[in-house]
Design brief:
homodimer, four-stranded parallel sheet
């Protein structure tokens, strides 16, 4: 018994800490929900100013984190801040402040025959829980997107960068205070214990409305498996480019090269190339050559390997999100073959068809059931910024509420306002 | 061991049955997602025609259910069909068929500086699981709403009316076949075991996207506690009417009387009356008299009891959804007092303010965080039909995706279509 009790108490303590964050967030959000656009913009400006004015303090905290870090170079690089990165972080906050206010938008309005006038109006979601790993910029990006959309945020930073996150959150909260806004609109889980993640996924005792995980597959898998509240996330981006029989060859080369190699490690990077058998002989060698010249490894099925030099692809390859300069290649029989392959392997993120045939494009855009479907465009455009949303807190492949890039509009819900003159229901 | 194994196997069998329904629903839905509005309307017309042509068979099944029923009169009344109710059920299907098709709506469209044209377009949610109790009309209502919105439905009927539900589903499926549509768009869980509900709440092995419970508090509580997939539901409708200092007395009497007594048992019925202290003396006696004359029991706080005859209300009363001709009454200090009471006790369903003061109304509509907020109108208008949605599958008080009445539009999600000319991302 004596060995168990301290652990139980500790978990309870952490649950209590997270629940308290939730209550404070809820109270602060009630205030923010009524703030004007100008008040929110002033708060964001003050937050950006504080990030700039506290650069030295934040960089010192970052140096301490880095000195204690045991992770490898990739993690260390993502975690490292300098004056330029901090200035960009402040600039990103200012970009969000310039966005149109998503709260209060009239989404629909109509009159009823009995004289009632009904409006559907956008309101904040409430409290957003953001669980992330080592990227310090998530601290500021998520906070500013939540604030502009009228939501409070509870941040859970990776433990190796908790000091950096604390310094950034201190700056953001100082900015909120400067602007006369409740500081508890932005809160950071102050403990490293993993039980805190569990408490957030359980909804923080009613204090969190939705969870956004920002990080690798292990994190997202845990979040999706354990969360008792809704989650905006994508587990993977297994994106396809389909080169149709009517594809222009140069366009097919350029788009495929960009879709895979511009940044092979982002979720919108293509992982599989499908080539219509009708043009495989004419198009595939040129595409393969361009990719190989750019340093991409190709893994093809038998029909693809007969047309260009590449490694042998297994069925597992077509189910793999490489996030690396590797591309699976299959030759398929027409649009139907491509649709069948995509239906089997797609993660529902983004797929693109290259074709000059409008009818084929329309069928592809209609029948592929992914968050984003494209015609004659690189899958790397699957991004909130590229969509014109200004910024995104993530990309969601779920079907509920938010699908695709999650920007400030997607961080709102709505309510109905009914205006009457004393009507009673017969 | 021997006592446990058969039970395990049985649960596994039921899980397998539900998972199979999910796979069949998913396949059928893929077909429906591509159907034209005309094809969906033809299918709904055929389903309505089959309900009418198979009236005798359905009534016979209903008679068998009723003969075996052990439940009380209220349940028996809800479960009882006759030719008139069946004709109304068919008519309700035809009403849904006449609705605007929610699939394919362009929700937004914009050009990007790089020439990309982006559309957000409504698509079906997928497969809806509906868990209900004894009302046979839910079988047809839910099926038609799901079909019109491009979704497949898996129905779980209350066990005492499974025979009736089976006969109705047989008719609906015959109608689907008549129209050349996949019958598995409408499926009924064929077993009475409660483990089937658990299997649905777990998502039917990926075969169900969202659960809609239709029934009493016990059912909704279980669904909200156990569901691993999103739920569209309201646990209760603890709705408030607030009579503000600037309320017209006759309007306050008429709206309160209607909000409570038109049908005291629906979720949009008012459960609490709040009266501004400034007009309590002038307005409350008239309201109380009208309610008492209509057979309503009043339970008031001390200030209310000082002005009109009523029972004593406890704190528990203000937290109680009576669904009966009983009304809690409190005198509050101005708009702030009403907002504080509502923030504490509301279930987030529907609240209404009665006032001639536009500024007070605007503050109420802005600050009350419920799915539906009203000005000078009866809370009994909280209904998809009254909102002009044609019909509703339920009312949701959650914040995600659907809030308020859930009609065919709320049963859709969306995807992004991106139209390019070969653009690559710099």
């Amino acid at each position: 018994m004596s060995a168990v009790r301290p652990l139980d108490r500790e978990d309870n303590e952490i649950e209590a800490i997270v629940a308290r964050l939730g209550r404070k967030a809820r109270a602060a959000q009630g205030h923010l929900a009524l703030a004007s656009t100008e008040e929110k913009r002033a708060a964001l400006a003050a937050m950006a100013a504080r990030v700039r004015s506290e650069t030295e303090r934040i960089l010192a905290a970052n140096a301490t984190d880095l000195a204690a870090m045991t992770s490898g170079d990739a993690m260390r690089d993502r975690a490292t801040l300098d004056a330029g990165r901090l200035d960009a972080m402040a600039g990103a906050i200012e970009t969000v402040a310039a966005l149109a206010d998503p709260v209060g938008r009239i989404l629909a309005a109509w009159d009823r025959p009995n004289g009632l006038f009904i409006e559907r109006v956008a309101t904040p979601l409430g409290v957003i829980g953001v669980i992330y790993e080592s990227r310090p910029n998530v601290t500021a990006d998520a906070s500013s997107l939540c604030l502009m959309s009228g939501n409070a945020v509870i941040l859970r930073s990776g433990s190796e960068t908790l000091g950096t996150a604390t310094a950034i959150v201190d700056a953001l909260r100082a900015g909120l205070a400067d602007a006369g806004m409740p500081q508890d609109l932005v809160q950071l889980v102050p403990v490293k214990d993993r039980a805190a993640v569990g408490a957030m996924l359980a909804g923080a005792d009613g204090g969190i409305d939705v969870i956004v995980p920002r990080g690798g597959r292990t994190l997202v898998e845990r979040v999706e498996a354990e969360a008792k509240v809704p989650v905006f996330a994508h587990l993977e981006g297994l994106c396809h480019v389909f080169v149709h029989a009517e594809a222009d060859r140069d366009m097919a080369v350029a788009v495929t090269l960009n879709a895979k190699m511009r940044r092979p490690g982002i979720c919108g990077a293509a992982e599989t190339l499908l080539v219509d058998a009708a043009v495989a002989r004419s198009h595939l060698p040129a595409i393969a050559e361009a990719l190989a010249a750019a340093g991409c490894t190709l893994r093809g099925d038998a029909r693809a390997r007969a047309l260009a030099p590449m490694e042998e692809a297994t069925a597992k390859d077509f189910a793999t999100e490489y996030l690396a300069p590797i591309l699976s290649v299959a030759v398929v029989d027409g649009l139907d073959g491509a649709l069948a392959h995509i239906a089997r392997y797609s993660s529902g993120h983004t797929e693109s068809i290259i074709t000059a045939d409008e009818a084929a494009a329309t069928r592809f855009l209609t029948e592929v059931d992914s968050a984003i479907v494209m015609h004659n465009a690189s899958t790397q455009f699957a991004d909130g910024g590229e969509f014109g949303m200004g910024a995104e807190i993530g990309i969601a492949t779920g079907r509920m509420h938010a699908r695709g890039p999650v920007g400030v509009e997607q961080l709102t819900t709505f309510k109905y306002r009914v205006h009457g003159k004393g009507q009673t229901r017969p």
